[in-house]
């Protein structure tokens, strides 16, 4: 069942909220990645080892990580600056070209000589992922490169409404960066949203929203979460431990839990078909951030982000939605669940 707030009476409000996302501007900070897809068919097993032989017939590139979050914001119509780091390599050039082709600014991307641009290569056979190969550099930035990176952030922060940190643990979002940017963002009264890496969870103090999935929540707190009630209790603990405003826990087919103070709201999933959950978390945090940046209550921002996630998981690979698609989905789901 869809959230009870999404009624025919409230529908114009939600549709206008989505339209107003275009007025927001978000600074996305974190690990930009290139997603490469090799598409093909499997017709036999290798004689060299018991593995399928994939005959590749197409290669495509998509934006991943923080760059996929930026792509989500851009596709829905929000304004976005992407502050990430790439190497001076072929994959970095492809990533920049892919961003530019989608109309996403690359002015805040730092190129570091000798660094490897993060690339994830997925081999897909008949819409099923066979294997993934990662190329990445997990080292922290050298001091001079960190200073250059911080200068880009510092020069951008006043022009945005929200700061979204995508922490994939690829060496860009470090304790030093967090201890520098979070106090500044709080001082400037910016919306701060975090897609967390569990190793850094204690460093996200005071943020506007943090969006762990239930596995990340379990790892971050060091407890096994076997029931929905345990997930709720863990979310409340994280909220209090971090002194943050909102925790949004994504729970797969069970939907999402929004935790504010002592209030917990369960937003059930609206997905009818699930092909690939890759990038769904990116969509959730992108839409949630734009919602908060446009002064929506957290519950309404979460409802819209849930609708967006329900659309992207119907496609293979990291996908995005437009504002028009999201509005149509809201209308369809409102009619379906209130008929």
Describe it for me?
The chain has a single domain (11-32, 65-114, 138-337), classed as UDP-N-acetylmuramoyl-L-alanine:D-glutamate ligase (3-Layer(aba) Sandwich). The protein has ten helices and 14 strands. It has helices at residues 11-19, 66-76, 90-101, 143-156, 175-187, 214-221, 228-242, 280-293, 298-312, 323-337; strands spanning 25-30, 32-45, 52-65, 79-83, 85-87, 110-112, 119-125, 128-135, 162-166, 191-195, 209-210, 246-250, 256-260, 263-267. Helix 2 (66-76) crosses helix 8 (280-293), helix 6 packs across helix 7 and helix 8 (280-293) runs antiparallel to helix 9. The longest helix is centred in the last third of the chain and has 15 residues, at 228-242. The protein is globular.
Give descriptors for this structure.
single chain; 339 residues; alpha/beta; UDP-N-acetylmuramoyl-L-alanine:D-glutamate ligase; eight-stranded mixed β-sheet; four-stranded mixed β-sheet; 10 helices; 14 strands; globular
